[in-house]
């Protein structure tokens, strides 16, 4: 199981969402923690410019949660997933 690390921008974005969406974000991140490759690498060019070429996204109620994987980054061989942010899908299109 991967270890999740949260960036300050992600936590700031999360605080702006309503409780229903926030709960779904946490549910989707549990899935990412269990299966880090579950997200898609088909990321819009403007998100790649903002978050880098290695970011993945997973859809959550009209938002995309963006993250990147860091395989076996600790002595125990655990993978790290850095959660970068949440962005409205409308804002990207």
Structure description:
This protein has helices at residues 8-15, 19-34, 45-51, 89-92; strands spanning 3-6, 56-60, 63-70, 80-88. The model has no long low-confidence stretch (mean pLDDT 91). It is 38% helix and 28% strand. The N and C termini lie far apart (33 Å). The chain is an alpha+beta fold and 93 residues long. It has a single domain (3-92), classed as YaeB-like fold. It has a four-stranded mixed sheet.
Major beta sheet summary: 4 strands, mixed
Taking pLDDT < 50 over at least 5 consecutive residues as the criterion, the unreliable ranges are none
How much of the sequence lies in strands comes to 25-35%
Structural class: alpha+beta
**First and last CA, distance:** 33 Å
Q: And the CATH topology? A: YaeB-like fold
CATH domain class: Alpha Beta
